[in-house]
Amino acid sequence: MPEALPEVSAETPAESVPPVKKDRRVLRAVLRWTAAVVVFAAVGTSAAYGITQMERTDVPGLATEPDGRWEYPTISKPPLPSGSPGPFAEANTAGAHYADLRKLVLPAPKGAKADAALRGEDGWLATKTFLAEYATKYDRETVGQLLTDYGLRHIAAHGWTTPDGTHTRIYLLQFGTAAVADDLVSSELISYNSPVHTARGAEASETYTGFAEDAQVADVTRYSYVESKPYGPEQVRQAYLSAADTVAVVLQSRKGTAEALPFEQTVILQSQLLD
Fold this sequence. Notes:
Radius of gyration: 18 Å
Oligomer: single chain
Strand order of the largest sheet: 4-5-6-10-9-8-7
Structural class: alpha+beta
Strand content: 15-25%
Distance between the termini: 20 Å
């Protein structure tokens, strides 16, 4: 069984960044509680993730009734280039992800229809496609200028729609160093209890604190939000993740109510891939 993780409190955007562990050279192969139970097995410089089914009574906080978890295919971290450290290794002072960023984006679950608009060219997405997620011209222009000022290098993305109508978009934005990426998120993109810039379809959002206490990925800072009532035809959930030199933006929208469990599952799995 994986070793127990230290307990953490449900985060708010005002919460301090989790302390950095000194020894990060061993790739973490521990999957914290997720909505889909995933077994992470470390192999050399990469970790293979096997998707298994556990009794729902074995998963903290879940009832025995069907709970809406998605079934993901087997997921593997891409190998690091020979001699390259992991993003949180002590030797990696820049906090760089040396693995192919395009292979660090969470794939679609089984049965989902891929979003062709997010495939990009050779897997790299045009910045304007990401900016289209913001509601107003002001937000798009402001965030676009921020990405230029902070030296955006690449954007990789995946998107899909599941049979229940939930539309998921994940964007990984890579910068020169971990310090730059973290400053962008904490200083420019999030505020105390809501994102600074409004996502399309989410007029008002509030902090989401529904994650289990043991679901925090140690080296990834997470800010999560849910569109507050009353909302329009769709509800939007969103998360910003700061992970070394990369900022992940996760958005989920669904007609009526966007369910919490698939959102938590997606955010945690994406965090694991970036850890």
